[in-house]
UniProtKB/TrEMBL annotation:
This is Chaperone protein DnaJ. GO terms for molecular function: unfolded protein binding. Residues 6-73 form the J domain. InterPro entries: DnaJ_C, DnaJ_domain, DnaJ_domain_CS, HSP40/DnaJ_pept-bd, J_dom_sf. One of its GO terms (biological process) is protein refolding. CDD domains: DnaJ (cd06257), DnaJ_C (cd10747). Keywords: Chaperone. The keyword Ribonucleoprotein does not apply. GO terms for cellular component: cytoplasm. It comes from candidate division WWE3 bacterium GW2011_GWA1_46_21. SUPFAM superfamilies: Chaperone J-domain, HSP40/DnaJ peptide-binding domain. The keyword Magnesium does not apply. It comes from the Bacteria.
């Protein structure tokens, strides 16, 4: 792995590029530099460039591998034990469909077949010659998921090029989670196996929440008296019984609470994807200082200030 070019440079993207931008850059370059598209005299260079592009995508196309690469460079790209196709993680079976979460870190990819990655993205290995199609084309779609459906899980019937597919949305699904449905892509040529269907979940989170995996963060505003004397206030939390997926819980504010104090409400956040518990809600406190005071309020505060 010594003296290798930067993977971001290879794909022509910045380090802040989104995963969608990574995928789009790969698809454009892989098509452009596929060896079957090169002239006979240029095939050797095309094959070198094609392998380089696929190697970069095998790392940057996976969020966990990309994180290791960003931290450790090429040395970190070989950490972990994901599968050679770049879709490591864990899967679940719901009826005839299987979906998997792309969360695995990648293994060492020395000696990998770049045509496997190309086939995964495009559904075929080459444009001609000996590398013919081995299965149908993969399909890629995005699905908007309401917050309530992300909280409770849901079943949807969606129409894609290959027909109608029943989608099981797992409780706790995160924005960007990729669901894989094996064999639900386009039919393969000459009796070959069909491709796969990949659906990326786009989860809408209410504006008053910020989400970090299974935890949520929110903020509340207290007046001076509540912060000084203490109070019991209601704060937004996840509630699977609510039609919106959002409910409220009571939070006890102790006397003397300072601005910026953060409280933790355990098990009031999102369900964990693997069914192992529930995340938390973190509540940050802001104290509102009134811009105008009545004469009596001003007198009392002045008196307080002289004590």
């Amino acid at each position: 792995m010594q003296n290798k070019r930067d993977y971001y440079e290879i794909l022509g993207i910045s380090k802040s590029a989104s995963q969608d931008e990574v995928k789009n850059a790969y698809r454009n370059l892989a098509r452009k530099h596929h060896p079957d598209m090169a002239a006979p005299t240029d095939k050797a260079e095309a094959e070198r460039r094609f392998k380089e592009i696929n190697e970069a995508y095998q790392v940057l196309g996976d969020a966990q591998k990309r994180k290791s690469y960003d931290q450790f460079g090429h040395a970190g790209a070989g950490f972990g034990s994901g599968d050679s196709r770049g879709f490591g993680g864990f899967g679940s079976q719901y009826g005839p469909f299987t979906y998997s979460y792309t969360s695995g870190a990648g293994g060492d990819f020395e000696g990998f077949d770049p045509f496997d990655i190309f086939e995964q993205a495009f559904g075929f290995r080459g444009f001609g010659g000996s590398r013919g199609p081995r299965k149908g084309k993969n399909l890629y779609y995005e699905l908007n998921v309401d917050f309530a459906d992300a909280v409770r899980g849901a079943e949807k019937v969606v129409s894609v090029e290959s027909g109608k597919v029943t989608i099981k949305i797992p409780a706790g699904v995160r924005n960007g989670t990729e669901l894989r449905f094996e064999g639900r892509g386009l039919p393969g040529p000459n009796g070959m196996s069909p491709g796969d269907l990949y659906i990326t979940a786009r989860v809408t989170t209410p504006a008053h929440f910020q989400r970090a995996d299974d935890d949520l963060a929110t903020a509340i505003e207290l007046d001076f008296a509540q912060a000084a004397l203490g109070a019991v206030v209601e704060v937004p939390v996840v509630d699977a019984t609510s039609h919106t997926g959002v409910g409220t819980a009571k939070l006890k504010i102790p006397a003397g609470t300072q601005p910026g104090t953060q409280f933790r409400l355990k098990a009031k956040g999102m369900p964990k994807l693997r069914g192992a518990g529930v995340g938390d809600v973190f509540v940050s406190v802001f104290v509102k200082i009134p811009k105008k005071l009545s004469r009596e309020q001003k007198r009392l505060l002045e008196e307080y200030g002289r004590l």
